[in-house]
Please model this.
Amino acid sequence: MVDIPLKSFMRKQKDKPIDMLQGTLDLLILRTLLFGPIHGHAIAKSIERTSQDVLRVDHGSLYPALQRLERRGLITAEWGTSENNRRARYYRLTTAGRKQLMTETGKWERLTEAIARILSPDREEA
Amino acid sequence: MRWWSELKYVVKKLNRRRAERELQEEIDAHLEMETQEKIADGLSREEARYAAHRALGSVALATEDSRAWWGFGRLEELSQDLRYGARMLMKRPGFTLVAVLTLGLGIGANTAIFSLVNTVLLRPLPIAQPEQVVTLNFGVPGRGVFPLIGYPEYTDYRDRNQALAGLAAMGMAPVGLSNNGINERIWGLHVTGNYFSLLGVGAALGRVIAPEDDLTPGGHPVVMLSYQCWQQRFGADPQIIGRSLLIGGRNYTVIGITPPEFRGTELASSPELWFPMMMKPGLEVGRGPLKGRTSPVSTIGRLKEGVSWAQAESALNLIAAQLGREYPQADKGQIVVLTQPGLFGAAMRGAVLRFTAVAMGVVVLVLLLACTNLVNMLLARASERHREIAIRLAIGAGRSRVLRQLLTESVLLALLGSALGLALAYGAVALAARFKPVFFGFTAIELQMDWRVLVFTLALSLLTGVLFGLLPGLQATRPDLIPALKNESTLGGYRRSRLRNLLVVAQMSLSLVLLLCAGLVLRGLLRAQQIDPGFNPRQAVEVSFDPGLQQYDRERGREFQRQALERVRSLPGLQATALTAHAPLTSGESGGRGIFIQGDEPKAATQAPIALTTSISTDYFSTMETRLLQGRDFTAQDDAQSPPVAIVNEAFARRFWPGENPLGKRFNFTTGKWIEIVGVAQNGKYSSLAEQPKPFVYLPLAQNYESKVTLIARGAGDPNLLTAAIRNEIHGLDGNLPLYDARTMVEHMDLPLFPARAAATALGGFGALALLLAAVGVFGVMSHAVTQRTREIGVRIALGAGSKEIFKLIVGQGALLVGTGVGIGLGGAVLGTRLLAKLLFGVSALDPLTFVGVTALLTATAFLACYLPARRATKVDPMVVLRQE
Model:
């Protein structure tokens, strides 16, 4: 009796926020790499700066996301030297990654437009 | 291409140490950059470092989650499950051992029987495109079809049909091979010139028999040797081609060796020698006065490309109708039925199918029993692992994930069991192969464990693994979490035991059915050994020989038989010696002959009553110790010149002249001279120990010559010395004549008892196995019940129940299960044992002694299995139990 709500509650906690974040963060990383290969720190900084510090990217989400994208063949990584002469891993967008970025961006735009229409219908009229 | 880049990634990350180091270095670099930035903002190094850590979150979590992407996903999960399963199995060696043994026996029995099915029914013949090859069966509707036809008719079908790319004929016959002073009777196959090209079989050495070797009767003394014959009899002599061999008194030139895997197209008869058809003695080439009824051959054809089985059959039946019009006497009403080659046509194929179906049924039953036990054991274990599983579910493992892990464990068990089963089956098959030569002289059935058997066993073990794992798994992953975590017993346990009780009842009834079958067959065997076969098999030996194998004609053959008998009779220490054409209870007994009685009104030959016959020398009855009830034995005066006489058995006399004196009465075999009855012998068993008395006729060998005879000698001495002496005497007459089937008459009696012995061994073995499994099942259920009811028992004892009451309580619960199982089993047995009638030798299929005995045995065993848990229950200490609360 008791186990059903307990289990489904746990599933909510575990799955839902991560699902949201995963797709979004992947999209943002791909977008950031569009301007050329950069390392992990620069990716995080760029996202934070561009979003005017609304979005924060910590290690716990950045590095698994990079592994995931690399595994899916959307980005490649190689060692290079950073601006202040440190060894750093530079990530580069692959052709497949570029294609993925296009389709995902399109999807994202349609999604946000749709949500925006629902949340504030008055703006549409204006 | 995505899978390719993904594979590259996974392979790169296989070097875990390097991947870890790189990730660590990367994260460190990131941290350092962040720190540098903070320092630039004016913080001290230490503060900056701390701030960076705070901003970027847990490094441990980052590495942990990153690692998750390096693996093989599901595959990795599987290997995890396998390792965990293996650990669990090793932790409980007793459980694992019993489970693997149980499964091994169940799967082993299935594998052994399947390897038989595979050999007989599934494995294609080693010929080109075997699916196109068919055997032709001939017959009259309603009277059965046989794969035999006269050679002249074969040529008609061969030349007239348009549906077959070719039609070949063959005929099996024993031949005498003389090689290095050893003479043996071995099996040869006469084949038409198109046989090898039709089958697409080449020669391993030399060349095959070709159409030009098969043109004129008796004109082509060439022979091919089977690979095995070449290896065993001629030491694989590479110079054998072109050598001359003495076969049946004639020289044949060896032209080739057949490939090792080719043993002819019939499983039950593999020849050692191949001859051209034209070398077959007495082959009737054209439609002569014998109307195509002699020289029967079997035929094998290859369908033309694009012609279906049914089209070919109807085309051949058109020819059959045509032949019926042209030769109404021989071929009227004949039909053609096509079958697959390998099992001697339609009749034997049906019997083999029935036999294998029954055998497969029995072993599947045994496997089901084994599975039932495992379900039981796993259910018991699942309630022990209740807490472990509840915790797994509580901390977030999905039900399917836990179920997958439990199934991995049971499949692992099944795989271990099937490994043991394969080993057991291999042993059983090897054992069976050792028995084979005694009983089937020329069979090609070689049980082999090929890939089909392996695939079957693997599939079976996966299936059983899922079968016995799923139910306990589903039960185990559906606990009410809260009570399980609080370590309370639950009502769920009650539902579980109901299921287990049902399984035990099923087991009891299944094993009772098997044991009853075994018991009945065993009783039948004991009975069969007491059946009077109508002669005394003790202190007698037999040797068979056939002067026809050395081309003796009727006159010389008769003289040879007479001299052989005379020489053996002159040996010291023999009480009596005689010849008979057909020793009783031999396989391949002569067919019956139609009987007309003098003075009866004439009727059609096909309507005549049938009696079995044999031809015998003088002294046959005293040699066999068969009583002559009336009249006289044959004497030397009953020869070809004197009037024909016969001795009949009681059944014959009673059948035709009930209440009258049969002596002096006359009969014939639907044609020919009248034969006068001069004696009446006691009834005997002629083709099977189980048969009812059958009419039987003895004729003097001197008046009814048969070339193949068995010499029977009665004497008290060492049977080996006796046969050696007999062999010596006969070889003194002709050193090249093969002697065969030399054995004591007691050994001879093994043959009719073989099917019952095999059945009793198999059923008894499976029955004992089933009993053991059922006992383990009852024991498991009762022990578990006692564990579950410990608290209740404690309370009862505290309230004053004596150990006698407690004992009764537990045994009563067991008795209910056993009683229900026995009841259902008895019902099943009443329906099932009827199938065994042929093996029971007159014991009723509902023999009360067997039923009572076996039921008592089963009940006693079940009681024993209840006894130990019940004893344990009486030892429950109420104080300990009640304090546990």
Remarks:
- The CA atoms of residues 11 and 17 of chain A lie 11 Å apart.
- Chain A is about 65% helix and 15% strand.
